[in-house]
Design goal:
- There is one protein chain.
- This protein has 46 residues and is mainly alpha-helical.
- The protein is built from one helix and no strands.
- The longest helix has 40 residues.
- The relative contact order is 0.08.
- The mean pLDDT is 75.
């Protein structure tokens, strides 16, 4: 199956947009979890 290059580029951009949208909330939650863990560690150390 051979696609025209412009269509392939469009599809690549389209999928990148979707994956970015999907990935962002997860990375944001990871950042929050990481921050919370660091806060706990700071509170633990006297």
């Amino acid at each position: 199956m051979h696609l025209r290059p412009e269509f392939r580029n469009f599809r690549k951009k389209f999928f990148n947009k979707i994956t970015k949208r999907v990935r962002q909330p997860a990375s944001h939650l990871n950042e929050i979890a990481h921050f919370n863990a660091r806060e706990k560690n700071i509170k633990k150390t006297p």
